Amino acid sequence: xxxxxxxxxxxxxxxxxxxxxxxxxxxxxxxxxxxxxxxxxxxxxxxxxxxxxxxxxxxxxxxxx
Length: 65
Known about the structure:
The chain is 26% helix and 22% strand. By secondary structure, the chain is α+β, with helices and mostly antiparallel strands. It has one domain. A hairpin with a 2-residue loop joins strand 1 and strand 2. The longest helix is centred in the C-terminal third of the chain and has 9 residues, at 55-63. The chain starts with a helix and ends with a helix.
């Protein structure tokens, strides 16, 4: 999941065990991802507001995987 979001957001994924960080050149642009010990009881619950100049330009490279 980390590599997908890194590609989508134009960031680097830095894995660290079962966690990881998405980061870019701007130190204020960081996303930390981790696995929680509790069992999953619902769908993945993540909400990111992503702003893009072109949705097509953002989605096209992700769909070609």
